[in-house]
Specification:
The structure holds two protein chains of two kinds.
Chain A: E1 9-13, H1 17-29, E2 33-37, H2 40-44, E3 53-57, H3 65-75, E4 80-84, H4 89-97, E5 102-105, H5 110-121, E6 127-129, E7 132-135, E8 138-141, E9 146-149, E10 152-154, H6 158-169, E11 175-176, H7 177-184, H8 190-204, E12 211-214, E13 218-221
Parallel strand pairs in A: 1-2, 1-3, 3-4, 4-5
Antiparallel strand pairs in A: 6-7, 7-8, 8-9, 9-10, 11-13, 12-13
Chain B: H1 3-45, H2 48-56, E1 67-70, H3 86-93, E2 98-103, E3 111-117, E4 126-132, H4 140-156, H5 158-174, H6 189-244, H7 249-278, E5 287-290, H8 291-301, H9 303-309, E6 312-317, E7 322-325, H10 327-343, E8 350-358, E9 361-368, H11 375-380, H12 389-392, H13 399-412, E10 416-421, E11 427-433
Parallel strand pairs in B: 6-8
Antiparallel strand pairs in B: 1-4, 2-3, 3-4, 5-7, 8-9, 9-11, 10-11
Helix pairs in contact in B: 1-4, 6-7, 7-10, 7-13, 8-10, 10-13
Classes of the chains: A alpha/beta, B alpha+beta.
Chain lengths: ~220, ~425
C-alpha cells in the first residue's frame, strides 16, 4: 500500500459505532487524518475546507444521508464516497446523480475501502508536464519524440515510440492489444504489436520487466 | 357446433329407437291384420249359396282357381289339390275360425296363405287362398315427424342459448373486477350457475390478492433481512481482517477458514438480495451504468480473495463505456463471473475482465485460465441451479446460484450471455449489449 498522499484528511459520517471505529482505525493505520461524526445533524455544520474526502453512510438517523450529500455538494466539491447497506439501486443512482463520486456496498473488506479511498485520492504516479511524461526510469518527450532511459537516449522506431507513449499515458493500467493497436499503430495488427513489444523489451534491457504482459488483456507499463 | 344444433340432433337421435320400434310393430302386425281382413272378404264371397253349389258340384271348371276348398276333415274337395299344410291344420283343429301363415318365394315371404271356415260342416267347410301381403305403410311421414321434432327442439333451446351467451359475455366483460356486472337472476339451474360463478369469482380474487400480498411481504422481508444482516457482517469482516494481520501462525489457518466462510456468506447474501430484486421486491432501475468505476469496484471487492488464492486479476475498460441496466444487479452479475473465475482457478492462475466498446456494442469479457469446464457443462452453464460436478465436489461456494443470477440479469436488461472455452483451457464468459 503506497503511503497516504500528504496526510490527507478524511471525514467519516457513520452512525454504527463498531463500523465507524473499524473504518477510522484502518484509515488512521494507513496514515490518514480521520475525523468521525456519528450524528447526521452534527454533520450538517461540519467545516468542509481542508478535507480530502468524505465517507458518508446513506442510512443515517436524523438528517438522511442524501440530504447531507446535497448539502455538502452545495458547499464544496470535496470527493464523497457513499456507503450503502441497501440493495436498492435507486439510492445509489440518486447519490451518484447528487454528486457522490463513488459508493461502496456493505459489507466490504477493509481492502475494498482502502482501494476506493486511494482511487479517489490517487496522485498520478506518472509525472506529466506539458509534453513530457516520466514513468520511473523512462522519460518521453512527446513533441520531439525522444525517449530516454535513466538519462540515456533510447533509439526507438516511430511505432515503438508510439506504443511506449500510449502505454505511458495510462501507466499502471493494462491496455488491451486491440486498443493499443488502434491508438499507437493504426496500420499494424496484434501480431506486429507483439513484435514491437519484444523489441522494446530488448531495448529496455534490465528494465524490460516494466513492460508487462497482462494475461487475457494485453500490456501494461508498470509504475515503480 | 352450437348448442342449438346439438339439441336438435340430440332430439332426433333420441327419437330414432322410437321410430324403429314403431316400424317393427307395424311390420309384425301387418301380416296378421292382413290375414283377418282377407278372411272377412272370403266369408262374404263364399256364402251359403256358394257352399251349396260346392257341395253339389265338386268341380269348379278348368279356369285357374285362386282358392282351394277343404272338407270338415281338412281333406281337399278336389282330389288333385294338395293337402292342407300341417301348421294351418293344427290351428284349425284347435278351434280357430281362421288360420294363416306367411309364404313366398325363397326367404322374402311376401305372401300370405289364409284358410277360413265358411260352413259348419260338409266337404266344403274351409276355403284357403294365397294373396300378396299388403304393402307396408310409407316411412317418410315418420322421418318428417322426427326432423320436425329436431327443428322444434333447436328452436325451443334458443332462449337458453341466449342466456348462456349472455353469461359468457358478462364473464368476459368482468375482466379483473370482483363480480359479474349482470347476473342471471332466474330461479333455475342457469341462474344458480351464474350466481355460483359470481360468488366463486369474488372468493378466488380475494385468494389471489392474499397470495400476492404474502409474496410481497416475503420479498420485502427478504430484502430487509438481507440489509439488516449486512451491517453486522461488515463489522465481522472488519474484525476478521484485523485478525488476519496479527500474524499468529497458529491461528492463521483458523482465521483464513473464518474469512472464507464469511466471504461465502457475503456473496450468498448479495445474491439473495439480487434474487429478491429480480423477483420484483424492489423496483428495478434501468439507467446508464458507467463501467469503468464498476469494474474497479468489482476488482477491489475480489482483491482479498484473489490474493489469498494466488490468482491475478487484471482489467481494462474502454474509456467512457456504459451499459443501460440496474447498477446493483449488473455489479452483482459481473462480480459473480469474476468471483467464480477466481474460485475455480488454481494458484498462479489469471482472470481478465475486459470491457470494450465497438460501435454501439459493449462487450464485457471475463476470462480465466483455470481448469475450465467440460463441453457438456459449458452448454448448461446458464441454467438456474446448475453447478458442475467438479465444482460441487469442492466447497459449496454457490456458483450455480450466482450464474443463474447472471443469466437472469442479462435476460432482464436485454443483454446476451455466452460461455466459451478460453484459449488454452479455462472459461470465458461474455456479456454483450447495446
Amino acid at each position: 500500500m503506497p503511503p497516504a498522499p500528504e496526510k490527507a484528511r478524511i471525514l467519516v459520517v457513520e452512525d454504527d459505532a463498531k463500523i465507524a471505529q473499524q473504518i477510522c482505525v484502518q484509515l488512521r493505520g494507513e496514515g490518514f487524518d480521520v475525523e468521525h461524526i456519528a450524528d447526521g445533524n452534527a454533520a450538517r455544520d461540519v467545516a468542509l475546507d481542508n478535507l480530502s474526502l468524505v465517507i458518508l453512510d446513506l442510512m443515517l438517523p436524523g438528517t438522511y444521508g442524501m440530504d447531507l450529500l446535497k448539502l455538502y455538494r452545495e458547499r464544496s466539491d470535496v470527493p464523497v464516497l457513499i456507503l450503502s447497506a441497501r440493495q436498492d439501486t435507486a439510492d445509489k443512482v440518486r447519490g451518484l446523480k447528487l454528486g457522490a463520486d463513488d459508493y461502496l456496498t456493505k459489507p466490504f473488506w477493509p481492502e475494498e475501502l482502502s482501494a476506493r479511498v486511494m482511487a479517489r485520492l490517487r496522485r498520478p504516479d506518472i509525472r506529466e508536464s506539458g509534453d513530457q511524461i516520466e514513468v520511473g526510469p523512462i522519460s518521453l518527450e512527446l513533441t520531439q519524440r525522444e525517449a530516454t532511459l535513466q538519462g540515456a537516449t533510447l533509439e526507438l522506431t516511430p511505432s515503438e515510440f508510439e506504443i511506449l507513449a500510449t502505454l505511458a499515458k495510462r501507466a499502471g493500467n493494462a491496455m488491451t492489444k486491440r486498443k493499443l493497436v488502434e491508438q499507437a499503430i493504426p496500420n499494424g495488427n496484434e501480431r506486429s504489436l507483439d513484435v514491437h513489444i519484444s523489441r522494446l523489451r530488448k531495448k529496455l534491457g534490465e528494465h524490460s520487466a516494466l513492460l508487462e504482459t497482462v494475461w487475457g488483456v494485453g500490456f501494461r507499463l508498470r509504475t515503480p | 357446433m352450437g348448442l342449438r344444433l346439438k339439441t336438435g340432433l340430440l332430439v332426433m337421435v333420441l327419437l330414432a329407437p322410437l321410430v324403429g320400434l314403431l316400424l317393427w310393430i307395424q311390420g309384425s302386425t301387418r301380416a296378421e291384420a292382413g290375414a283377418y281382413a282377407i278372411a272377412g272378404e272370403m266369408r262374404e264371397r263364399f256364402d251359403e249359396d256358394w257352399v251349396a253349389r260346392c257341395e253339389s258340384r265338386p268341380r269348379f271348371g278348368r279356369r285357374r282357381r285362386r282358392f282351394h276348398v277343404y272338407g270338415e276333415d281338412f281333406s281337399p274337395r278336389v282330389r288333385s289339390d294338395l293337402a292342407l299344410v300341417a301348421s294351418l291344420r293344427e290351428q284349425l283343429e284347435q278351434g280357430e275360425e281362421t288360420a294363416w301363415r306367411r309364404v313366398g318365394p325363397g326367404e322374402s315371404q311376401n305372401g300370405l296363405e289364409v284358410v277360413t271356415r265358411v260352413a259348419a260342416s260338409g266337404p266344403c267347410a274351409y276355403v284357403g287362398v294365397r294373396r300378396r301381403l299388403p304393402p307396408p305403410a310409407p316411412i317418410w311421414p315418420i322421418l318428417m315427424v322426427v326432423m320436425l321434432a329436431g327443428l322444434v327442439a333447436a328452436l325451443a333451446s334458443a332462449p337458453l342459448v341466449r342466456r348462456v351467451r349472455k353469461l359468457t359475455k358478462a364473464i368476459d366483460e368482468a375482466g379483473d373486477s370482483d363480480a359479474l356486472s349482470q347476473v342471471d337472476s332466474s330461479r333455475d339451474e342457469l341462474g344458480d350457475l351464474s350466481r355460483a360463478f359470481s360468488r366463486d369469482r369474488a372468493t378466488l380474487r380475494g385468494k389471489v390478492q392474499e397470495i400476492a400480498e404474502q409474496k410481497q411481504t416475503l420479498q420485502t422481508f427478504l430484502a430487509n433481512t438481507t440489509h439488516d444482516v449486512m451491517t453486522p457482517l461488515t463489522a465481522l469482516v472488519g474484525h476478521l481482517s484485523s485478525l488476519r494481520n496479527l500474524h499468529d501462525e497458529d491461528s492463521r489457518q483458523e482465521v483464513q477458514g473464518a474469512i472464507e466462510e464469511t466471504e461465502y456468506m457475503r456473496s450468498l447474501l448479495r445474491n439473495l438480495g439480487a434474487a429478491a430484486r429480480l423477483d420484483g421486491a424492489l423496483d428495478l432501475v434501468a439507467e446508464p451504468v458507467a463501467l469503468e468505476p464498476l469494474v474497479e469496484r468489482v476488482v477491489a471487492r475480489f482483491d482479498a480473495l484473489a490474493k489469498e488464492r494466488g490468482v491475478e486479476v487484471n482489467s481494462a475498460v474502454d474509456t467512457g463505456a456504459s451499459l443501460r441496466a440496474d447498477l446493483t444487479l449488473l455489479e452483482q452479475a459481473i462480480g459473480n463471473l469474476v468471483g467464480n473465475a477466481i474460485r475455480y482457478n488454481r494458484p498462479g492462475g489469471h482472470v481478465a475482465l475486459v470491457v470494450s466498446v465497438d460501435g454501439g456494442q459493449v462487450e464485457i469479457r471475463c476470462a480465466d485460465d483455470g481448469p475450465g469446464v467440460s463441453d457438456a457443462d459449458l452448454a448448461r452453464l446458464g441454467e438456474r441451479r446448475f453447478r458442475s460436478k467438479e465444482a460441487r465436489s469442492r466447497r459449496p461456494t454457490g456458483s450455480g446460484f450466482g450464474l443463474s443470477i447472471v443469466s437472469d440479469v442479462c435476460d432482464r436488461f436485454g443483454l446476451t450471455l455466452r460461455f466459451a472455452h478460453s484459449e488454452g483451457g479455462g472459461l470465458t464468459a461474455t456479456i454483450t449489449g447495446p
